[in-house]
Specification:
- There is one protein chain.
- This protein has 3 domains: 54-245; 252-462, Aminopeptidase; 475-654, Immunoglobulin-like (Sandwich), CATH 2.60.40.
- β14 and β15 form a beta hairpin.
- The protein is built from 17 helices and 20 strands.
- It is of the alpha+beta class and 656 residues long.
- Strands 13-12-16-10-9-18-19 form a 7-stranded mixed beta sheet, with helices on one face. The protein has a 6-stranded mixed beta sheet with strand order 14-15-11-8-17-20.
- α3 (60-85) runs antiparallel to α4 (89-114) and α4 (89-114) runs antiparallel to α5.
């Protein structure tokens, strides 16, 4: 047997290894063919594009027609808006009709194209769908606009030829406008199907992104459609409310109150100024304001009304006056009491149709809208309105030699008159801004309205504009502060709320922490904060413990209330300047709340007190069930939420 030759074996092995491909070469192999593969792919794509182009070539004229008609419709609708703003209603209507014809032609051609198989291919169908969305938006909008024009054409034509501003038109003309407004509102309500189609088509159009053929109309769609939908909503709201509120064919009288939320009271703030507003057919017949003390003084020392116990105890008052009548955060209740005092104190108007309360926040926003206002050499802006007005009536009036308590707020009447003039002469194209200002202030409860017209009052309550404490079978929370002899210290107060709910056994236990931070000093406006506070919770809740700072309050020292289908705990506390204080309230929720939420969902309604700008809130929920909705942190069975409360909020948690 031939002996083993190590050198020959090694050389043979190396030769075999060279002939045997390494495993990595299998991965490198495709790189040799990459240019050919790319070439084949590009050729395939090019072939598809060519075939697609050849397939659509017979319909090129139709495609161009649809595109041209849609673009022309866009241009005509933009021209319509411009002529409308210029009050050239005849030309505006002509452009609207041309736009309608454009869209009709585009729709006819598009329906023909959709029947062809090539236009159902994904790469083409997207463009067809976008075109269809645009046509739905345009056709429905022009249809509704044409019908509105048919109703209001005569009024608009008269307004155009007379060249009057809204403040200059006659009462008869305003009456006619209000009646047309009702007709337009009814029309828009009956057009809700078309409006919903516009909304859906707009959502589809925006959702598809990268609009291809339709890039030229993107800006117009995005800028016009949301405003148009908001305009329809505004029209229906105004038509539902305005005719009755502003006295269509019948004068309405409203008791007006200015609530200063720098000195917070339950329904929104201290009533320092009241007034009477008379309107008929949209015309503000008169609006007079006066210092509340000029009315209150008429019953001083007559002991005609006994105040609530906290007013007696913490204000040292043995008599009750109109300035303190807004003792309930439920505005309809406070409004009725305010009107009672108006009559009790000899208010000259026998019949009042409602009560309207505003906070300075609204005036600040209106000044921002109409521009700075100068009265007797004093300029008021959005930024300085509240502080400057406070200085003028508390300090400057007396520095200038004034000595009559009843006259020091005359500047408010002058300011109101100038603001009224500015608003009535506001350009038509800024009415949307005015609508936004008013609705936002209503939502945040800086405007509250109570009327005796039950239909209208129900409407305000449904819109959450009435300042009403809401009924709910679920969990509920509302904190109501009453500044009692703490000057205007609410202007420097920060409020923080922490609410923790835990499920244990067969029920819920709640822990509420309220922290009040006094950022003020001892001066003519601010001092130590003194508040009588009521915390409203579900009716039947059982108080476990209440602590103010480090002190536990005995149950017999807590005021217990049952009102507005709620339980409430009342207590008094103080916070020194540059200090803070935390109140901790522990209580068990009633069995009914637990039963209502078990195995389904849990709801918590937090209502913000009118006049409070915001609460910083933190919510912490711990349940046995898993939570499947709401943004959550922590465990699957827990939820933590941090935010700011600027209006009433409903928190809804769904369980698995």
């Amino acid at each position: 047997m031939e002996g083993f030759n190590k050198q020959n074996f090694i050389e043979k092995k190396q030769l075999e290894d060279q002939e045997k491909p390494h495993w990595s070469r299998f991965f490198l192999l495709p790189l040799h063919f990459l240019p050919q593969i790319i070439g084949l792919i590009l050729a395939g794509v090019l072939l598809v594009v060519i075939l697609l182009g050849l397939s659509t070539l017979p319909y090129l004229n139709s495609i161009q027609l649809v595109t041209a008609e849609v673009l022309d419709a866009r241009d005509n609708l933009q021209a319509f808006a411009q002529y409308l703003e210029q009050k050239d209603y005849k030309t505006a209507k002509e452009r609207l009709e041309v736009a309608n014809n454009n869209l009709f032609s585009a729709e006819q051609e598009l329906q023909i194209l959709k029947q062809k198989a090539v236009f159902n291919l994904p790469i083409v169908k997207k463009e067809v769908d976008l075109a269809e969305d645009l046509i739905v938006i345009g056709s429905n909008a022009t249809k509704i606009a044409n019908e509105i024009f048919s109703i209001s054409e005569n009024v608009l034509a008269d307004w155009q030829t007379s060249n009057k501003s809204f403040s200059e038109i006659s009462e008869a003309e305003r009456s006619q406008i209000l009646k047309k407004l009702v007709e337009i509102g009814d029309l828009i309500k009956h057009s809700q199907v078309e409006i919903d189609q516009i909304d859906s088509a707009y959502t589809n159009f925006i959702g598809k992104g990268k609009y291809g053929f339709w890039d030229p109309v993107e800006d117009a769609v995005v800028s016009i459609v949301p405003s148009m939908l908001k305009g329809f909503e505004a029209f229906t709201t105004v038509s539902d409310v305005m005719p009755s509120l502003v006295g269509l064919d019948q004068e309405k009288k409203y008791l007006f109150i200015l609530q200063n939320n720098d000195e917070l009271r339950p329904s929104g703030g201290f009533i320092g100024t009241y007034g009477i507003m008379k309107v008929k057919n949209g015309d503000l017949k008169s609006f007079t304001t006066d210092n509340i003390y000029n009315l209150d003084v008429k019953i001083k020392d007559k002991n005609l009304a006994v105040p609530p116990e906290p007013i007696k105890k913490y204000l040292g008052m043995s008599e009750w006056f109109m300035r303190d009548a807004n003792w309930w955060s439920d505005f309809p209740t406070s409004a009725e009491k305010i009107e009672q005092f108006y009559h009790l104190e000899g208010g000259p108007e026998a019949n009042i149709d409602g009560v309207i309360a505003i906070n300075p926040n609204l005036v600040e926003d209106l000044i921002a809208l109409v521009g700075n206002i100068t009265i007797d050499g004093v300029t008021f802006s959005k930024e300085n309105f509240t502080d400057e007005l406070q200085y003028q009536v508390e300090v400057a009036y007396f520095e200038k030699g004034g000595d009559a308590e009843g006259d020091r707020k005359d500047i408010i009447g002058k300011l109101s008159k100038e603001l009224e003039n500015r608003l009535f002469n506001l350009p038509l194209n800024r009415f949307e801004e005015l609508f936004d200002v008013v609705t936002r202030n209503m939502k945040e409860k800086f405007i509250q309205i109570y009327v005796k017209d039950t239909t209208l009052q129900k409407y305000f309550e449904e819109k959450k504009w009435a300042g009403k404490i809401e009924y709910t079978p679920d969990d509920y929370l509302m904190v109501v502060d009453a500044n009692l002899a703490a000057l205007k210290t609410d202007r420097v107060m920060n409020r923080e709320m922490s609410y923790k709910l835990s499920e244990s056994g067969n029920g819920y236990t709640s822990e509420l922490k309220l922290t009040y931070i006094n950022n003020g000093f001892f001066d003519y406006r601010t001092t130590r904060y003194r508040s009588y506070t009521r915390v409203y919770v579900p009716e039947g809740s059982e108080l476990v413990e209440l602590k103010i700072g480090n002190d536990v309050v005995k149950n017999e020292e807590v005021d217990f209330y049952k009102e507005f289908n709620k339980s409430a705990y009342g207590f008094f506390f103080e916070v020194e300047p540059k200090q803070s204080k935390t109140i901790v309230i522990k209580y068990k929720l009633p069995k009914a709340v637990y039963e209502a939420s078990r195995d389904k969902d849990y709801k918590l309604l937090i209502q913000k007190q009118a006049g409070v700008k915001e609460w910083k809130i933190s919510l912490n929920f711990q349940f046995k069930q898993n939570i499947k909705s709401f943004t959550q942190t922590g465990s699957r069975q827990g939820l933590v939420y941090d935010g700011k409360l600027k209006m009433d909020e409903l928190f809804n948690l769904l369980f698995d």
